[in-house]
Amino acid sequence: MNFDVSVLVRGVEGIADPEGRTIERALGVLGFPGASAVRVGKIINFSLAADDLASARSEVVEMCDRLLANPVIERYDITINTAPAS
Amino acid sequence: MNFDVSVLVRGVEGIADPEGRTIERALGVLGFPGASAVRVGKIINFSLAADDLASARSEVVEMCDRLLANPVIERYDITINTAPAS
Amino acid sequence: MSITDITELISKDARHVPLGLLDKEYGSIIEVLGRVPTDVELAMYSVMWSEHCSYKSSRIHLRRLPTKADHVLVGPGENAGVIDAGDGVAVALRIESHNHPSFIEPYQGAATGVGGILRDIFTMGARPIALMDPLFVGPLEDAQSRYLLDGIVRGVGGYGNSVGVPTVGGQITFDRCYERNPLVNVFCLGVLPIDRLVLGQASGVGNLCVLLGSRTGRDGIGGVSVLASAGFREDEGGAKRPSVQVGDPYEEKRLIEACLELLDAKLVVGIQDLGGAGLACATSETAARGGVGMDVDVLAVPRREPGMSAVEVMTSESQERMLAIITPSSLDQVLEVCRRWEIEATVIATVTGADESGVGHLRILDGPDGPVLADVPARSLADEAPLYDRPMLEPANLDERRDTGPANALVSSDYSEDLKSMLVDPAWIYRQYDHQLFVNTIFGPGDADATLLRLAGPGISHTRKGLAMSSDANAAWCAVDPRRGTRATVAESALNVSATGATPMALVNCLNFGNPEHPQVMWELSETVDGMAEACSALSIPVVGGNVSLYNESAGRDIDPTPTVAVVGLIDSVVRRPPSIGWIARDRIILLGERSANVGGSRWARDVHGVRTGQIDEVDLAKHKVLCEFVAQLVREEAGAEVAPGLVHGIHTVGDGGLGVALAEMSVASGVGCEIDEIVDHRELFSESVSRAVIATGRADELISRARSMGIAAIAVGVAQGDRMRVSQLVDIGLDELSSRFHDRIERALGEIASH
Amino acid sequence: MSVNIAIIRFPGSNCEFDIEEAIGKLGANAHIVWHQEHDLSGFDGVIIPGGFAHGDYLRCGAIARFSPVMDAVTRLARSGGPVLGICNGFQVLTEAGLLPGALMRNAGLRFVCETVEVEVTSNHSPLTSQVALGTRLRLPVNHGEGNFTCDEATLAEIESGGQVVLRYVDNPNGSLNDIAGISNREGNVVGLMPHPERAFDLVVGSDDGVPLLASFVRFVEEHVASHVAVGRA
Ligand SMILES: Nc1ncnc2c1ncn2[C@@H]1O[C@H](COP(=O)(O)OP(=O)(O)O)[C@@H](O)[C@H]1O
Ligand SMILES: [Mg+2]
């Protein structure tokens, strides 16, 4: 089966986010002072061939732990959907 | 009112995604050959003070057009939720 | 309070234990204060009296290093050493380690290591113009070591490149002793007009302390006491995560510019960076150095997160912050400069006078008139940590370890293959670093034995002088004999600098060692300091600064003693590019220095045969000094004249990998092979006896007779020619293969090019 | 008469002093201008130097284009004034819409600092107007995001319009059609990833950047002369 996987990787709470801060400052200068608490993350989309949803999920968890996220400073959220048959 | 905004910025179709390609290769090497069509995007979360949903949305569209995405290489998707009253 | 009272207090109260303080240290605190410390006081003592901040295990040894010379303006003890380079220009230099953080999170660990050392330099009033990054990781065959190397290199580049300071050199060592404890040392050098020199001192009762830069978050709390001052046990990486800091090079870039502008405008009385131990360190050190007190309003400190306690604020190691001491009348101008550079600036403290007995107190207040959370003699935090003369023990099996017999009995079936396996081009590393910014780089990484820069930079007067620098370390030599190994390391570094025509002027060192509670490690440290002192005295190179990193151990195994040194030298006039490590077809190849067939302590014995024992040759330091001066003179003649005498075409010192690796690198650099007939013994090819250099020349007789007239041994070993490297019956390798094995080593290991 | 060239300094610029020194050696007056300035009258040409204008976390040059000085740069460019962007300056000019296309992360995802060979492929720019077509130059590159890209229509247009002024001989970053530098259609605005100011003296290894920057200064001088002539007529 084919699955559409989306992994959202974000900094853990309390870790500084220089990119978010810079964007926040720039938005303020551009006339959007209402924006605050800007945080930037990364989203990784891919399709995955796997036997079933459970094995897809466990494979993606392993991918995250080993490659996609750095557990020391990042956390991740996984979304998996069954890909529409094409 | 306060809104939780999430802007997803991705490369437009047809533009190379070197980061996605590299991750795909690395996943293959690590023993996950089932992953394909890897694309990487950026997600920008922030809270926004605005009068109502419509004005929040139009403000975020403007932010995207002016700063958050480069239309030559990127497209964006906006999600806005009402922030839980605290 | 009586001793028994204190003992009783300690036994009831275990607050100090999780902070890494010993019972007797807690007792000393109670004795200093005459009472039980508050939480804020205790937290400040725990970070300031940590190994990392107080050098409590190493201080009594470091005193033996020679630190004086006429040109030394600032020696050890300040944020950086400073030397006079003439013409109103001074040079500030320092080296630091960021070992433990780089193991936990290689990118951010290395990045914040760069950030920290930069602040040590610009806090002296110098503009940072050069970084070097000696790195030590496990073998490339080990997957975790490859991951660490990749992250560390990205981190150094990610920070250095965008902060706008070029990384102009460094070193890379692969050895299994670093497998679970990589070392990231970072050297920085800055230049300044002498009259901008400023010290990290508070003075002037009523003066204000302004905190500049990033907001304070919960990053790196207890980093110095919990992280840098204890080893890693098996699988402990995770538990120490809260100490990870994230660097922001853009904030640092603006901080550099703002601080230099404040100093140029004479708006600052004293300034100090915030590094390990954060505000506790910056406030107590500046007050102690100036013999004054300080009232800190901890509520005034801008925070990144809600709900932070005073303890957290005082000990946070959030990056990119500085503390400036200014007169109240200059506040508006200071704020204006900071506003221009988009730097947050907040008055957080005032300078107070000493008490009737001459002691300046650091007081932490919760709000301008709020309750006093801490009141301690500033000096007791900064200067009065307990000093330990820890037990030392010479290892029992020294004779066996130093026996050169086993190494010298080794033979291989294919010396060509041995040599190829020993070649590593660090270009994969330095290609990821901006190494040309400021257009000063005459010899960048990979070009010569040392980096050579124009002595120039924004804001200082232009000269024709050159500034040479080399960072060196060889733990394998030191593991067998730390004293002799360190002498050889200093000698090698001085010769590298001399090979670009410069005279060595100053040295900084980073002593990376294992657990100081192991008596053998303390013996190694002590021997190393003695070796460094002997070499620096004999070669007239003052030690102007250093850093000690202890507890480099993993799962109970200490790393090999790794003293890193960086020598900086000056050359009066560079009007042409001096000769580098290439040669020209038909050059004669001359070896300067004594021949040796001892492969004890060599990389060949260690990496090819797994034999880690055997002494290296002793360096005759008096003779070595003559060699350094001779080599520098030869190169200066080529660099300083509009028309070069053309005696020296190429030069390369012999070090790690011996003559074989030196000749291979010269062949690859020039694209011309060589025919070496004088070397017939494989041991001579791989011996790492220092105090030797290879010179390529078209006028061999002249060169040899000049050398011999100085009492320096010199022989012709072969000629540069053809497209193969040939050494008697030992080695025969085509240049193409030699080049690809050299250039591709790291990429291949990382899978960035397919392996054969 | 020596011309006045503004070198724009953002808080994160870092090559401004290097280009100032190079332009000074060519006999023009180089002035460093803070990004908060609104007015560039009195300047005959503009250079945006390398660096990391505003930290460049979001996209290189994305925030820089909103600095007040960029309105003045845009006015000068639209009125035919010579504008040069080097490295980060090139990124700023594409973000500001003064040059077509965009610069993405290098194909290898690694920062590259090395000396590469480029070939002059068009004279239709201030940087190359005085340099023979086909000239090969050795110039340092130093960037993490130098991978030029654009859509097919734009590519066809810049190729046919002679707007590709420099091409890599051996592509270090994956850029489309080996593009190292481009000009606008009018030929007065030019951007390139390599650093000509870093190749300005044989002591540091190469002086191949001299003809390019000398060409730029000459172009500025001619632009001034033609305006003076127009003004008189
Ligand atoms: N980590 C590094 N960062 C930057 N440059 C490096 C690094 N490692 C090595 N280099 C550079 O590569 C060149 C060769 O290094 P090395 O093999 O240690 O030289 P040598 O053995 O001749 O002293 C030197 O110019 C050095 O500065
Ligand atoms: Mg070396």
Notes on the structure:
The complex is a heterotetramer, with 2 copies of chain A (86 residues), 1 copy of chain C (756 residues) and 1 copy of chain D (233 residues). Helix content of chain A is 33%, strand content 40%. With 86 residues, chain A is α+β, with helices and mostly antiparallel strands. Chain C has 27 helices and 28 strands. Chain D has a single domain, classed as Rossmann fold, CATH 3.40.50.880. In chain D, strand 1, helix 1 and strand 2 form a beta-alpha-beta unit. The radius of gyration of chain D is 16 Å and the shape is globular. Chains in contact: A-B, A-C, A-D, B-D, C-D. Magnesium ion (MG) binds next to loops of chain C. The site of magnesium ion has 4 residues of chain C, from loops.
Write down the CATH class of chain A. Answer: Alpha Beta
CATH architecture of chain A: 2-Layer Sandwich
Helix content of chain C: 25-40%
Structural class of chain C, please?
alpha+beta
Please bin the fraction of helical residues of chain A. 25-40%
Q: In whole angstroms, how far apart are the ends of chain C?
A: 74 Å
- CATH topology grouping of chain A: Mth169, Chain: A
Detail the poorly predicted runs of chain A: none
What is the H/E order of chain A?
A: EHEHE
Could you list the spans of chain C in which at least 5 consecutive residues all have pLDDT below 50?
Answer: 233-241
Mean pLDDT of chain C: 94
Show the helix and strand layout.
The complex is a heterotetramer, with two copies of chain A (86 residues), one copy of chain C (756 residues) and one copy of chain D (233 residues).
Chain A: E1 2-11, H1 18-29, E2 35-49, H2 53-68, E3 74-82
Antiparallel strand pairs in A: 1-2, 1-3
Chain C: H1 3-12, H2 23-33, H3 39-48, H4 51-54, H5 59-62, E1 72-74, E2 81-84, E3 89-97, H6 99-104, H7 106-122, E4 127-137, H8 143-163, E5 167-174, E6 183-193, E7 208-213, H9 223-227, H10 249-264, E8 270-273, H11 278-290, E9 293-297, H12 310-315, E10 321-326, H13 331-340, E11 345-352, E12 361-365, E13 372-377, H14 378-382, H15 398-402, H16 405-408, H17 415-421, H18 427-430, E14 441-443, E15 451-454, E16 466-472, H19 475-480, H20 482-498, E17 503-512, H21 519-538, E18 543-549, E19 553-554, E20 557-558, E21 562-571, E22 588-592, H22 603-608, H23 621-640, E23 650-653, H24 658-670, E24 674-676, H25 682-686, E25 693-697, H26 700-709, E26 714-720, E27 724-727, E28 731-734, H27 735-749
Parallel strand pairs in C: 4-5, 9-12, 17-18, 24-27
Antiparallel strand pairs in C: 1-2, 2-3, 3-6, 4-6, 7-10, 7-11, 8-10, 9-11, 12-13, 14-15, 15-16, 16-21, 17-21, 19-20, 22-25, 22-26, 23-25, 24-26, 27-28
Helix pairs in contact in C: 1-2, 7-8, 7-10, 8-10, 10-13, 20-21, 20-23, 24-27
Chain D: E1 4-9, H1 16-25, E2 29-34, E3 45-48, H2 69-78, E4 83-86, H3 88-95, E5 102-104, E6 112-120, E7 136-143, E8 147-149, H4 152-160, E9 164-168, E10 179-183, E11 189-192, H5 210-232
The complex binds adenosine-5'-diphosphate and magnesium ion.
